[in-house]
Amino acid sequence: MIRTASAGLVLAAATMATTAATNAATEAAPNAATTAAPTAHAAPATIVQVDGGRIEGTLEDGIRAFKGIPYAAAPVGTLRWQAPQPVQPWTGVRSAGAFGNRCMQLPLYSDMVFRAAGMSEDCLFLNVWAPADATRKKLPVLVYFYGGGLQTGDGSEPRYEGAAMAKAGIVALTVNYRLGVFGFFAHPELTAASPDKASGNYGLLDQSAALRWVKRNIAAFGGDPDQVTIAGESAGSFSVSAQMVMPMSRGLFARAIGESGSILGGRGTTPLARAEEQGTAFARLVEAPTLNDLRALPADRLLEAARMPGAPWFGIVQDGHAIERAPRDTFATGRQARVPLLAGWNSAEQGAAGVLGQDAPTRENFQAALRRLYGNDAAEAARVYDYDVSDAARDLAGDRWIVHGTWKWIDLHAKTAPTWRYYYSRPRPATVDGKPAATGAAHSAEIEYAMNNLAGNPVYRWSDDDRQVSRTLHGYFVNFIQHGDPNGKGLPKWPRVTDPAPNVMRIDVQSGAYDPRDRARFEFHDRQADRQP
């Protein structure tokens, strides 16, 4: 999996009760175009012409917000499991005051809170936050892809809210993309029918289509189509690394930010032939032998089947089209988009239980786990993880899951373009209902800090120290989005990865560059990857 359930805690009970009710609904799309005329009191800057027609957003606290903008046709009926098609035009002025549907998904992670109108296959919407001053042009742009293991997530989540970025002079977007069986399903019939002889990766193609929408339309919001930064966390970070190798996305972005994850490690990509086998097995599971039968099934039937025992995990496919070759080869030979990259990971992406299970963190138990995981290579693993058992088991669990792939991405890309690496170690504080502070920075813990959205998460007792960390990390992100370099006034100097050590920026209450001396760990996992058949 690209994401674990330990990523965070539920929001306040009242909020989650509302969310649970929404999660239970699989509604028809409530976001069809409205034809009402613009209200008399609307500021002219909130009415914008985009692909398909005019939209009317809202203005609050100096920020214009446009929500639920369709960037492609609804992928329903015969468009299910096809590349995204042009948006259907509407007449009049379409309301852009509420989030569109989230894409079809199971309720997997407790820290996700959705403000979407409902859930539907008709979900290819994006959201834009921009400064109210319509006379300011050529602003840098941030396009953020949500996490959730490519199985869940939505652009309406409060932690991705773009208003704070807009206040910093950035036009910020969140993008919905198809998930799970709807977004990454491969099948021999789909491959045969495709002009590119490929299938799967529809979620990645959605993201690329959204970037083309940005190229054509973002100037209407004051954005510069030549200054687009793509960013994401977890599955969103996997997506960023994927967009960097996709031919159809070349020239659509100028910078990239990755938070915890890439397609260069772990369960990065699946070969097309194997993905087609999984798709055929799934078709048998739902008793739909042909593509027409599969497309005739209700969306909720497919969704429920995805949770059945034996159902495959649908992820990124090395299809020969969107992902032409092994991503590691692409980066190793410098064929990826050579744009500035800022990327890193958190100090506790997984806990020690990811290696030890229910066993106590003793040296004996750790050695037994290494023998189980690595056999004849256990002694080599023991040498590179020869420190406090609790810390070593935690690091090994995170490295195996998501950290090594992120490091490899950074390490290879730094050979071709300016690259900065971070290590985020600020634990979340105690919760308002009395749960103690975390002992490390868990997976996804940095998102609210980076996006300057602490106030949007009422679960935690945010302190002045947390707000200081947010100012630092947010400041680095803003500088990078604006200039392609995280450094700026009032922030500790952040060296490039290629600068002499120390060159890793540790983000915490006291942030600064340091040398973690962790290369031996990652080179061990490189050797393990090379030994795989």
Keywords:
single chain, 533 residues, alpha/beta, Rossmann fold, three-stranded mixed beta sheet, disordered N terminus, EC 3.1.1.-
Brief rundown of the structure:
It is an enzyme of class 3 (hydrolase). The chain contains 17 helices and 16 strands.
What does this structure look like?
Residues 46-512 form the Carboxylesterase type B domain. Belongs to the type-B carboxylesterase/lipase family. It is an enzyme of class 3 (hydrolase). Keywords: Hydrolase, Signal. The chain is built from 17 helices and 16 strands. The protein is an alpha/beta fold and 533 residues long. It has one domain (5-531): Alpha/Beta hydrolase fold, catalytic domain (Rossmann fold, 3-Layer(aba) Sandwich). The strands form three sheets. It has an eleven-stranded mixed β-sheet with strand order 3-4-6-8-7-9-10-13-14-15-16, with helices on both faces. A three-stranded mixed β-sheet has the order 1-2-5, with no helix packed on it. α2 (163-167) links the parallel β7 and β8. α12 (363-374) crosses α13 and α14 crosses α17 (519-531). The longest helix has 25 residues, at 389-413. The chain is globular and about 70 Å long. The two termini are 21 Å apart.
The CATH fourth-level homologous superfamily: Alpha/Beta hydrolase fold, catalytic domain
- Find the count of extended strands (DSSP E, 2+ residues): 16
Cα shape: globular
**Portion in beta strands:** 15-25%
Topology overview:
Elements: H1 13-24, E1 47-50, E2 53-56, E3 58-60, E4 63-70, E5 93-95, E6 125-131, E7 139-145, H2 163-167, E8 171-175, H3 180-183, H4 188-193, H5 202-217, E9 223-233, H6 235-243, E10 255-259, E11 270-271, H7 272-285, H8 291-296, H9 299-305, E12 317-318, H10 327-332, E13 341-346, H11 353-356, H12 363-374, H13 378-384, H14 389-413, E14 419-424, H15 447-450, H16 464-483, E15 504-507, E16 512-514, H17 519-531
Parallel strand pairs: 2-5, 7-8, 7-9, 9-10, 10-13, 11-12, 13-14, 14-15
Antiparallel strand pairs: 1-2, 3-4, 4-6, 6-8, 15-16
Helix pairs in contact: 12-13, 14-17
